[in-house]
Amino acid sequence: MNAAEQQEARWAVENAARTSYGRLIAIIAQRTHDIAGAEDALSQAFAKALETWPERGLPDNPDGWLVTTARRFAVGNARRETLLFVHEDHIRMLNEERTSAYGAPETDPRLSLMFACSHPSIDTKVRAPLILQVVLGIDAKRMAPVFLISPNTLGQRLARAKTKIRDASLPFDLPDQDGWRTRVDGLLGTIYAAYTLGWDAEFTSDNTLRALSHEALTLTGILKSLLPDDPEVLGLFSLMLFTHGRRLARRNGKTGAFVPLSEQNAALWNEAMIAQAEVLLRRAGTLNAPGRFQLEAAIQAVHANRRRTGRTDWAQIRSFHEILHDDLPTIGSTVALASSMMHDGDPEGALRHLDAIADNGGIGSYQPYWATRAHIIEAIGEQPATDLWQRAAALSNDPALRAYLLAKVK
Questions:
Q1: 373-383: per-residue pLDDT in tens?
Q2: Cα–Cα distance for residue pair 30/34, rounded to 1 Å
Q3: Per residue in 304-331, is it b (16+ CB within 10 Å) or e — as a string?
């Protein structure tokens, strides 16, 4: 192979790692239930691909090649360590590779893996990061700030959860309708966490994280096709479309500077995407089962309405945040409610609301808390917020957002 062909082969390996990781893990781990073993085997398969594809050329089915190679490594690893597999298992695996389907939305193997990771016997605190790591390949260090926990502690919890899935042989099959509906909320929370990671990283150099918002939209679309009448699935899809429709307005087209939502040019918003979000939200409302994601989508619908009215109805947004906080009193919902209170003309009440969580250890690395507190302090006007702006900036991985926050320092 010439140099260009070798570079193309190396790119193909990197692309497979970025776009097919979760699907391949799901296929490899489906019988053994050994997620950690599947991750090790797939890592070996990627290394083998980097070694052989540039030399021999791309296989006709790169994903199939990776599955075949990873399963062989898995068999070898298991035999060396525990003799878990026998020869017949290996033959059956190889035969299945000839008929495996890759990527059909209605049979996407990532869904089975997600349900296994959100099984009721898995600690609720670890389900979301477990799915993000296993399905989308995000390591504990990058996820830890989102879940307000140290990377080491998160890594230990993830390892224990994978061991539990393997040792208890938790099912990878899609649950029946009753079981599905009881677990779908956890899946939606995980998908939204993935979307948020990607949204926050969109203007950073981390390509893996940047791709997450698109992956999350894809996974939500899959769930919507399978649960077309689930109001919270519709609510989440609506929420993400409202948000995604504002992508182009988040940065100044000339300078690349960060533009906060309240200052964005609504003419740059994607009208078709926002209109689709409104249709989904109205459809969810007809099902008479309000929930978290419908509320969050409703908040974004009020913001989106500025493109018609030229103003933001902060009183309406505040009322939605109050309901959301009553139902889900997290650090995130507390900060969001405080921000809406400030914009609704009540900065003193907003500060008291933030003070109620001032002793929570989780706020230390939660950038929105410090940025919101700085905004509120300045709105009250009795003292400077220099230290708060600087702390918020230090916690931001986005250079443009960091520059915006530092520009607030007086």
A1: 999 999 999 88
A2: 8
A3: bbbbeeeebebebbbbbbeebbeeeeee
